[in-house]
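pipeline/complex-builder :: batch 7 item 3
reading input block
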Amino acid sequence: MDLLPPIASIFLGLIMGYLGQRARMCFIGGMRDYYLVKDTYLIKGLFAFLVCALAGFILFQFVSPAIKTFPWFLDGGAVFAKKWAAMGVAAVPSSILPVPGDPITWSPKAGAHIILAIVGGFGLGFFSCMAGGCPFRQHIMAAEGSKSAIVYLVGFALGAIIFHRFVAPFIKAILA
Amino acid sequence: MRITAAIAGGIFGLLGAAGQAFFHVIPPPAYGICIACHMRDLVNWIAAHIFPIYGLKAGGAIVIPGGPVSYNFPLLTIIGILIGAVIAASVNKEFKWKVMRVWWQKPWAEFFLGILVMISALTFGGCPIRTALKAAYLDITASIGLIMIGVGVFVGCQVLRKLT
């Protein structure tokens, strides 16, 4: 068992948690503040994230073999389909939108991905806006002692189980 | 130095790319930072190992719902974020028990909002952070998802204006 990713991710999380608490970082909050009061403090974080992640991927693909699928819409699927076939998982990548990434988006149809992105994206934006922050911000607020955010995290964990038990089979049946 | 959101966002972006490049956080690509997915892995892994009935046994092997991602030892980003935020809050003396004032952010309502956020996040595979990371990885569906998040927040803001 490869324990490097879990150990590395706990340190990534530590850095993110510290910086996120100091900066009041929130992705949904950036858009919300911009719409409501035209405040650009938080949305700058979103754009900085996009630019730095893109720059990071472009730079690191020369030094690391782990980013060989970088322009994801071109040929990312084949590499990961082989890897997962070795694990005994049947995943069919599409030539347009390579699939193996998320468990329920294993449909080879590109249209299914776009429909899921539209429905899920809208729900994510709307409910996160009502809840008062993106999931990351809720973790920070829970650590700051907000009881609402702690209860939110309980629902958040329960949502994963509900999704995989009830919602994912339903979506698979619809899109099959 | 005062840490602004722009600096923090830039560092997060580099961390997300570095997590994939150097620490091999890659069952799917662009997986370096994600709140919903890493929480899903953790919850599924714990649930399937404590209650084997949850990971339906097929021929003796545990089948973890959630696909091949959840078979690995789960990523512990969530734990790290909570510890880091507790450290930051206590070092800077910002820890205080509190409850939101408005009724739709009272604890009972936040419970259902949490469930709904998680379901819609997993529907297209990512919390806002991973959606942005995938969009930076030049994934077309994630770019559509990011735009739809903007639309959802816009509608949410209209509802908030009505409520307040």
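note: Chain B has a mean pLDDT of 82.
queue -> next item
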